[in-house]
Amino acid sequence: MKRALFAVFALAAISFASAEGAKEPAPAGTGWKPTKPITVIVPWGAGGSTDQVTRIAAGELETSLGQKIVIVNQPGASGSVGTKGAMDAAKDGYTWTAGAAADLGTYKVQGMLDTDIKDWHLFLSVANIGVVSVNADSPYKTLDELFAAMKANPGQITVATAGLSSAGHITIEMIRKSIPFEYKHVTYDGGNPAVIACVSGETVAVTQLAVEQADMIRAKKLRPLAVLDTKPLNLKGYGEIPPITNWIPGMKVGSNYFGIFIPKGVPAEVVSTMEKAWQDVIGNSQLIKDYALDRGAVFNPSYGEEAQRRAFSYLQPVAWLYWEAGKAKVSPDTVGIPKP
């Protein structure tokens, strides 16, 4: 497990919108019929937010596509290692990747990969929301107490995240922009390892997504202090987690969309087949709906131009957050991301 510095919270406040805004899929008869298994590179560790929903979506798509979909976990460098693997693979439609669209859209700003969301066909399934939690044995009972400790002990309070550009990383930086403090960032190869690190006492806090923390919150191994939203999160089996706006009124939060990404350049029939499958299968998936309800996510599938619009609306402020915090190597406005 790799360590470093960084921290708290991912986000979300997610509006329910149907996939009706996506463009119409190509007519039947132009479909792609894969002749061998499809590989989906999950660029994060097993058990994390990307891994969880990607495995469910892949299982749902297998029947529709008539082929096995193999999940390969390839973590490293905040998801950029696995994403590059999909970029470099043959453009035959048999290698996809997955994750948060905001990560994909800010790799160029961070100087990690020369790519952005326009280089990919986006198939989004759920929107995730970040939670600021502490170890259950921690003395911090409220967010005020945690903030006070961070201010009183600059750079000493440890926060676990899945690394630079991860949901947890974004969360802590968004909060830190409103309430200045310093913390010790400890990074791991995925959201699940970051959560386990906090549970085991390796770190004081964790700021990953609700979907990654849900089980440990219900088991009372983590104490959730706030959700990155404007309204409370009612987590099944636990109860209500208060919104960050109780402490930071007027804080702007957005929707962190997750899904499957196929590099542009693949045959057109691959894209049209996936669009139809996404509308007909994923758009009506009870398994993904149940997953979202159980884990504190929002079921909200989209593809095509609608997916691009949703992804950009969140990654735009995130890219500028990185730049203004000194975490980016490339100014967003030089790579097609104007200041919001």
Run of helices and strands: EHEHEHEEHEHEHEHEEEEHHEH
Looking at the overall shape, the CATH architecture of the largest domain is 3-Layer(aba) Sandwich
Overall geometry comes to globular
Class by alpha and beta content: alpha/beta
Write down the CATH topology of the largest domain: D-Maltodextrin-Binding Protein, domain 2
Overall tally of structural domains: 2
Let me know the CATH homologous superfamily of the largest domain.
Bordetella uptake gene, domain 1
CATH class of the largest domain: Alpha Beta
- Detail the poorly predicted runs: 1-29
User: What's the pLDDT, averaged over the residues?
Assistant: 89
How many helices in DSSP terms? Answer: 10
Q: What is the spatial order of strands in the main beta sheet?
A: 2-1-3-12-4-13
**Strand runs, count:** 13
Word description of this protein:
The protein folds into two domains: 35-126 and 256-335, 3-Layer(aba) Sandwich (D-Maltodextrin-Binding Protein, domain 2); 131-246, D-Maltodextrin-Binding Protein, domain 2 (3-Layer(aba) Sandwich). The protein has ten helices and 13 strands. It has helices at 49-65, 80-88, 101-106, 143-152, 167-178, 191-200, 210-218, 268-280, 286-295, 304-324, and strands at residues 38-42, 69-73, 95-100, 120-128, 131-135, 158-161, 184-187, 205-206, 222-227, 233-235, 239-241, 256-263, 298-303. The chain has a six-stranded mixed β-sheet with strand order 2-1-3-12-4-13, sandwiched between helices. Strands 7-6-8-5-9 form a five-stranded mixed β-sheet, sandwiched between helices.
